[in-house]
Design a protein that fits this description.
Structural class: mainly alpha
Number of domains: 1
Radius of gyration: 17 Å
Number of strands: 0
Order of helices and strands: HHHHH
Low-confidence stretches: none
Length: about 120
């Protein structure tokens, strides 16, 4: 509900105040950097894996870890922005944009993970 209210306030403004720096930093960090960090952590863990357990990246837990890393921004970021009075309209727009990007990003990531296994 807070996302809808903040998004409505951003739309009423007619020109949402969303900087390109904020957009690329947030979405780049969440959709690109964070999955790369997750893959690196799984790679480090795989180097210590015992042969009878298999690779952590191919396990259900490893795939779940990567799948969560590919998720878009959470809607609770708008609630935090609202509580801290830190421009919840911008947070709502970032949540919307990251969710729309995730519609294409998550299937690509799942296909890539499937191809790796």
């Amino acid at each position: 509900m807070l996302v809808g209210l903040a998004f409505d306030a951003a739309i009423r403004d007619r020109r949402p105040n969303l900087s390109l720096r904020l957009l690329t930093g947030t979405l780049g960090g969440k959709l690109l950097l964070w999955p790369l960090v997750a893959m690196f952590v799984l790679w480090l863990d795989g180097r210590r894996a015992t042969p009878w357990l298999g690779s952590p990246a191919s396990s259900v837990l490893g795939r779940g870890f990567l799948f969560v890393a590919f998720m878009p921004l959470a809607a609770n970021t708008v609630a935090y922005a609202q509580e801290l009075d830190a421009e919840p309209e911008q947070a709502a727009l970032l949540v919307l944009i990251s969710t729309l990007l995730a519609l294409a990003w998550i299937p690509l990531a799942v296909a890539g993970l499937h191809a790796m296994s």
